[in-house]
């Protein structure tokens, strides 16, 4: 029997705080990631039972905390300045949003000129959120820095 286990810690927030911390100091930066496991047996219970590789180097995993879907939010932030060739990935993005576990709140937003523009706020209606995914405008300079957009998103 397949038992899905979702351990969620928002990657977008991790990147925001990780890059902010990196700008302030050198060395290792704590990072959080969303992990989804489909296993035929019970998933590992401890962080030490897992291996994580970053840039082909093994890194220690310090925590493994399951998060229930009712307590998880996923923000899919798309750079609106991307070229239209990203359109090849739209089906994958639609599928990702539609197949999130029931109860997970999702927001689809487009990074434009230092802000995130979203058609709706966080919602558990995954079909609605998936329907807001579209080709980026593809205008050069529309989002000069995704880090500014992400920082603004986290603050607001």
What does this structure look like?
This protein is of the alpha+beta class and 156 residues long. It folds into 2 domains: 3-59, no CATH class; 69-155, no CATH class. It has helices spanning 11-24, 90-98, 126-131, 146-155, and strands spanning 3-7, 35-39, 52-54, 57-59, 73-79, 105-112, 115-118. It is globular, with a radius of gyration of 17 Å. Residues 1-23 have low confidence and may be disordered.
Summarize this structure as a short list of keywords or feature phrases:
single chain; 3-stranded mixed beta sheet; 156 residues; 2 domains; alpha+beta
Please describe the topology of this protein:
Elements (H helix, E strand, L loop, with lengths): L2 E5 L3 H14 L10 E5 L12 E3 L2 E3 L13 E7 L10 H9 L6 E8 L2 E4 L7 H6 L14 H10 L1
Parallel strand pairs: 5-6
Antiparallel strand pairs: 1-2, 3-4, 6-7
Helix pairs in contact: 1-4
Distance between the termini: 42 Å
Mean pLDDT: 77
Major beta sheet, specifics? 3 strands, mixed
Structural class: alpha+beta
Indicate the radius of gyration in whole angstroms.
Answer: 17 Å
Low-confidence stretches: 1-23
Choose one word for the global shape.
globular
- Strand order within the widest beta sheet: 5-6-7
Strand content: 15-25%
User: What is the count of β-strands?
Assistant: 7
Share of helix, binned: 25-40%
List the domain count as a whole number.
2
Oligomer type: single chain
Order of helices and strands: EHEEEEHEEHH
Number of helices: 4
């Amino acid at each position: 029997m397949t038992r899905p286990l979702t351990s969620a810690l928002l990657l977008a927030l991790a990147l925001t705080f990780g890059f902010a911390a990196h700008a302030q100091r050198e060395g290792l930066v704590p990072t959080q990631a969303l992990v989804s496991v489909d296993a035929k047996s019970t998933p590992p219970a401890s962080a030490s039972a897992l291996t994580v590789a970053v840039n082909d180097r093994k890194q220690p995993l310090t925590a493994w905390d399951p998060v229930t879907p009712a307590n998880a939010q996923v923000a899919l932030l798309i750079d609106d300045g991307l070229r239209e060739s990203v359109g090849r990935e739209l089906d994958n993005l639609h599928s990702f949003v539609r197949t999130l576990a029931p109860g997970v709140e999702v927001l689809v937003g487009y990074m434009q000129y230092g802000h995130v523009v979203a058609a709706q706020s966080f919602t558990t209606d995954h079909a609605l959120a998936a329907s807001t995914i579209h080709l980026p405008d593809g205008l050069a300079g529309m989002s000069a820095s995704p880090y500014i957009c992400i920082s603004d998103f986290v603050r607001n």
